[in-house]
Structure formats: C-alpha cells, structure tokens
Amino acid sequence: MTLPRSGSAIAPAREAAPPTPHAAGGLCGREPSGPLAARWERRRAELALVGPVRRRRHQIVVVGAGLAGASAAATLSELGYRVRCLTFHDSPRRAHSVAAQGGINAAKNYGNDGDSVERLFHDTLEGGDFRSRESNVYRLAELSARIVDHAVAQGVPFAREYGGHLASRSFGGALVSRTFYARGQTGQQLLLGAYQALAKEQAAGGVAMLPRREMLDLVLVDGRARGVIARDLVSGALETHLGDAVVLATGGYANAYFLSTNAKASNATAIWRAHRRGAAFANPGFVQFHPTCLPAGEASQGKLTLMSESLRNDGRLWVPRRPDDGRCPDAIPEAERDYFLESRYPRYGNLVPRDVASRAVKAVCDAGRGIGAGGHAVYLDLTEAAGRLGPDVLRERYGNLFEMYERATGDDPLRTAMRIAPAPHYTMGGLWVDYELMTTIPGLFAIGEANFSDQGANRLGASALMQGLADGYFILPCTVAGYLAGTSLAPVAENGPEPRAARAEVQARLDRLLGLRGRRTASDFHRILGRVLWEACGLERSRQGLTAAMDEIAGLGEAFWDDARVPGGAGELNQELERAGRVADFLELGELMCRDALEREESCGCHFRVEHQTADGEARRDDDHFAHVAAWIPGAAGRGPRRLTEPLSWTFMTPVERSYR
Amino acid sequence: MNVALRIWRQADLGAAGRFVRYQLDDVSADATLLEALDGLNERLVALGEPPVAFDSDCREGICGACGIVVDGRPHGPVPRTTVCQLALRAFPAGATITLEPLCTGVFPVLRDLVVDRGALDRVVQAGGYVSVRAGAAPEASAIAVGHDTAERALDAAACIGCGACVAACPNGSAALFAGAKLTHLGRLPQGQPERARRAGALVAAADREGFGGCTLHGECQAACPKGIDLGVIAQMNRDHLGAALSAWWRRGRS
Fold first, then answer.
1. Can you identify the CATH homologous superfamily of domain B118-250?
2. Can you tell me the ipTM of this complex?
C-alpha cells in the first residue's frame, strides 16, 4: 500500500482551482455537494495537506489580531506554518472583538430544550433572511460546539451553574437557550483566550507579531496575493511583508456611519484596498443596526455604546402609549405603556432578531412616541425583573453593563428604566469569499466580520464570536493548506517589481494626503458621510434617498481631496494621517453601500426598502429576482463598479417569510 | 463648562517634552475627557498644528488602550473608571486638568500621551496561557467548574492590560497585572498542570523587563479601573513560593 504523498488528498482531488473559477457575471461559491451534514467532512477529506516539514517553508501573512485573526494566526503556527501577524493596535488584546458583550452561540443542547446543529443552522439561515450560503451556515452550526470546548480548555471563565456545568441564556431569534457567556464581557474573555494562544505561539517562535502596523495595500504577483504593504505607525516607515498566502481579519465597516458601536479606529482600509486590487465586495449594503445602544447625545459624542442584547432576556422594551408623554417612566402606569415587541411579536416577544427589533423601535419613534432628546429612544426596563429576581441575580448576569450604563447616564438600571436606541453595529457585507474562505483573488483569504460571512442579511446575536472563531480555529487552517498544496508559487523578492510598484503607489497616496492643506478636518467629512448614510442607507432605504445620497457622497469625496487638511509628516507617529486615509476609504465605500442598497429591489433582513414591504410593514423578500449574493468588483478606468451575483439555493429547507409573531 | 488642559507634548521617543496649556470653552459637562481631547485636536488640525497623540479605541472601558495620567492619577480621579469613560462633570468648572503619559521606566513615551506597553505582552508570552492546541479540547462540561470558582477567575480575568497599576506603583511593579493572569488561570482546573511553571515564568519575565518588585503599597488596586485587588498578588506570591519550594525539594533540598 502506498501512503498519500504530502500534497495529495484522501478523496479524489477536485480540479485544481484556476485563478478565476467564476463564469462571466457570476460567482461560484465552490460548495461541496451531497447531504448538508456531510459537506464539511467531505471537503476536509478532499483538501490536500501540506506535510509537517514543508509547512515551515510557508509564510502566511495575517492582518488583524481580533478573534478571527488571532485564532487563525495561533492555529496556523501550531500547525507549523510561519506566521506574520499585523495589527494597528499596540497589542493584539485591544482588537474590537474585546467589546463583544453578551455571548457566543453553540449547539450544545445543555438546556434539553430541543436545540441541535440543525436548529442552530435553521435559526441562523432564517435570521439572515435566506441571504447566506447554506453550506457555510451549516458548517458554522456544526463547529459551534467545538469552539466552546476549545475556549473552556484555554481557561475562558464562562458562567457556571452551581453544579459546575456551563450556564447559558437566550438571544434574539432563538427559542432555545444556547448562548454561553462570561457576564457582559464574553468577547473580552474569548479574545484573551485567542490572545494567549497567540502569546504561546510567539513564545514558540511560530508567530512574528507586528503591532502598530497598518496594511495599506495588497501585493499581487501573477494575479495571486503574495503580501501586503504596511506602514509602521510609530516610525512611519513603509514595510513589505511577503508570504504565500494573505489572510485579512480586519473586521467590519460600521464606522462608515461615523457614530457606531465600533471602536474609534475600526476601519475598512484593509478590505477596501484589497477590493481596489480586484477582490469582490459582497453585499456592502447589509448593515446591522443594534436595537439597544445608548442614545446619541451631545454633538461632541465620538461613538455610541452598545448595551448587550442579553438584557432582553430580562428586560422589556416599551414606550408610552400617548405621543409626547413627558412623564418620567416610573410615573407612567402599566396600562399606559406599550410593550410594543410583546404585542406585535407575541411568540418571540422581546427576543426578536435585531433587524426586527430596531425597525420596531424606529416605527414607534416615527409615530411620535419615542422618548428622550429628539424622541429617538425607547425604554428597556429591567425594574420588573429586579423586583422579581432580586438585584443580586441581575448584577451577576449583567453587572458590568449596569456599571457602564450608570457611568454614562447617571441612572441605575435596577431602579429606572434604561433609555436605548438603535445604532450601526455590525456589517454582514464584506469581501466575497468562497466556501474555503478565499476571496476572488487567489491566495487572499478573508475571515471573521471582514468577509461577507455566513450571516446573510441579518446576523443573530452571539453569532459573530462564533463565526470569527470557527473561521480562525477550524476552517481557515484546513483551507489554507488546500490552497498551498495545490499551488506552485515562485519566490518573490521584496525589491521585485510588484512590491516596489505597490510601495510606490502607497507612498504617492500618503504624499497626496499629506499635501492636503485645506480648511476642514477629516473628521468633519466623516461626520457628514455618517449623517448621509444614516439617513439614506440606515434602518430604511428608498430609491430616491439612495440616489441622492450617492451624489452627495461623490461630492463629499471630491471636496475631501480639495479642502481637507492633514498636518504633520509621513515619518512620524501621525494619527491624523491615519484617520484621513481611513476616511478617504470610507467615502468610497459609502458610495458602494448605497449603490448596492439601490440595486437590491427587495427588502430582506436589515435591508428594508420602503418600496418593498407587506401591508403590516414587514420586509417583503423577492426570491425570484434577488435570491443571490451581490458582489461588486471595481470597473475599468472611468467606469462604475460591476455587480456580479452568486445564486443561492436551498436544499434543506424552503425559504419562508420570516415570522416572529 | 470651561476647562484648561495642561498636556504633555513630546514629538517622539528621543525628544524633550514639555507641558502645553490649552483653554477649552463651552464644553459639555457630559462629554468625556477624551471627547474634549477629540474636540481640541480638531481645532488644532484645522489650524495645521500637530494634534495631541493619544491611544484610545473602544471608549467603553474594555480594550485598555487608553491609559493617561490625569492630575497625577492613572485614569483620573473617579474610581473604577477608565479615562475614556471619565466625564468632565468629575471636575470643577474652570479646572486645569493635567494630562501625562503613563510614566514608568518600562513604558517608553512614543509621542505625547502614547506609550509602548509591549513589556506587558512579553510577560504574558512567558507563560500566561494554557498550552492547548486547537482541536485537542475535551467536551466543555466534561470538567465541572464550581460557580464561585468561575466567578472569581473572571474577576481576575477582567484585567484590561492598560498598565495603570504599573504607573501607579511607586516601584513600577507589574505584580497586579501578573498576579491577575496567574489568579485567573490558577483558579481554574484547566490551568493547574502549568500553574507552578507559569508563576515562576511570569515573575521572572517581569523582572527581566525591568518592572520593580512589589512592596504592597496598594496603589495599584486603587488605580485599577476593573477593581482587581491585592488578593491576586497574594495568590502570585503563594504560587511562586510553592514553585520555588517544590523545585528545591526536587533538587534534593540543596
């Protein structure tokens, strides 16, 4: 018997992927065929392996060190690859995954409440309003349990029952309790698990961690991704980091809205630069507004603060029945309160998915029944639960959230109903990837929120952590091997023509930014872009609004290059230069977001076109014409972007009209 | 309200620094100190002057990026509050607020209020983890962990790595930081196999990086925005001593 050689597969190999496996106008997700439950197993068997000795010869560049990036970098290093991991933070522990609060989903069925891989798959696909790829979603549900196993083994201190077993709670869009948590700081704890795995691999010598580096361009050689150009944010030096594959794990772009729950520095530059080099950008208009955030207040406010969805386990949303009711919440008797989610959606009540909850909040506010400054907020009331369960129980569940709320507002949520409002939070759109998480550029992978993901048109709560870690710990390490084993790559030199040309382009752009001597700050442009997007490409979209917004954003983009001001030089720590570059990219991306929302003539999930709604104001999906992923590639010079599509089909379940009533 | 900010300005690592005073009029008392800095920076940029460099990201007190010494105290005067959550209403109207970088010998100043805290990462790299490979984990509930054990581990794991404890300590010690990691992992069953080695490695790494020794002043716990207390240092000392004693025992008590 002959053993398979390194590089060969157990199952009959697929045809080697040509650089562009996509038919004209269409994209192929390269899903395995066969029964859903066997697809990932089958693909894993098909994927070629790289032998342990040869792995050391491959360098992989990972950009971003949040949950997806850190878990991928650590796992690739465990396998024996050499990894270079870049982050713009001073330490990988600061990535924005750290701010995720409520929990991570896993199909464990510890609650004995009927949960299963099948049900998590079903909830996620339906929660995403049937705009995700079913094979990916199934794989995600399948891997969910192993993620929690691994996190526990790393020492993540999940909440426990008194008997010592894992505690769980419910999140929106689910009727089972499958969300595992560490108070309101689950993201922090999972990130520390991944960060510690990264530290372990740094100590072992497999990962070279490069903090305070920002990726500014992608290096392509023979059409394949072979490295990145990054700026050292302290010295300002441009660096070339070459490898045999490049992984982007740089998060989402909700900061295009200026005010969002994303951290201040979260940005789209890495994925946008990759897009400019040809990577298709899928569903850019799919942006999730999280229903429970602290309402925007002062003009000086720099960002919005999330209040975890988990609060909807015990909290009830309501507004006064009477418009413009000026009384404080305690003074409004029960009969004069409208628990609008419970009355409109009796089955799921306060635990409807985020898109549904956010729109319902907007509806009551538009009807003049919102509260607080501008009437944009509603009450999230935990006082009844505090009376029923006692404050200690609630503090243990949500302690740090209460502190955060009290610090920001001066109110104690156990005594007074919280005031909350929707805010941009998560972007389901992102770089298009196939089943193996590879973008349309061979050798360029995108994981976590940076890809267009498994979340469809709306992500369920506690699924972002799940997806980032499934990608990083379990999927990417297999699929990168498959790519490397099936590809022969010529050596590339730092001073080869392609890296040199990319560096020169980055330098030229930096020079152009530093040459801006106008009167306005980058933040000024960003604030206006945010307002335009919020109005036109927010909770509700219309043809008229989107068309006008595209013109306005295009004008804003021109004005930026005319009238912005960027002080300082290139060879120094220059945070304003960083900001200006990111805002310039947001201005381009903002236009594409509107274009995408305009072209999708249906309502689905977060994407609510006022022209397409049912009689009772719910989203009306159009599966005949829009059961596809829309992915945009840059057009030829002087031409607009081109819209490609990947058709979606469902073998396991028939798409239904979502109903949480 | 009106406030003045007296801010440490330093062009880069090698440059000499100095305090510069900026007057801010009509800022909202509800704005945070960092939002006031954002506002000041926009003003400076519009004038073509270099804005004040400072680290900050989540603005929710969880990422640990912001660490600024405010009126002599890391994260300022309000207990258990990071500087990104510190509202101006904590200061009297007309106050002059002094902002400095987290100054210890171990965190070099890169520019203005930005410091390099890489030494803390290197302490974790010495052994602040559980050595488990992806894919090797048993079922999550296979090992029962008591409710209170998990809660106490989480209390210690809540450390955000901001470095305030080091800056607050007269010795520049990282004992609270290292102790928090050792307590987090040392409380859980998953952390037991490497517990002794971890304690020795983290303490040695902190020494190597130039952090000072702990003499239990307690300034660290007063400065910690996450309320981590000296108990974690007691735990560290116990684990470290235990590790040293067992090594001595294995060597034949010589």
1. Alpha-helical ferredoxin (1.10.1060.10)
2. 0.98
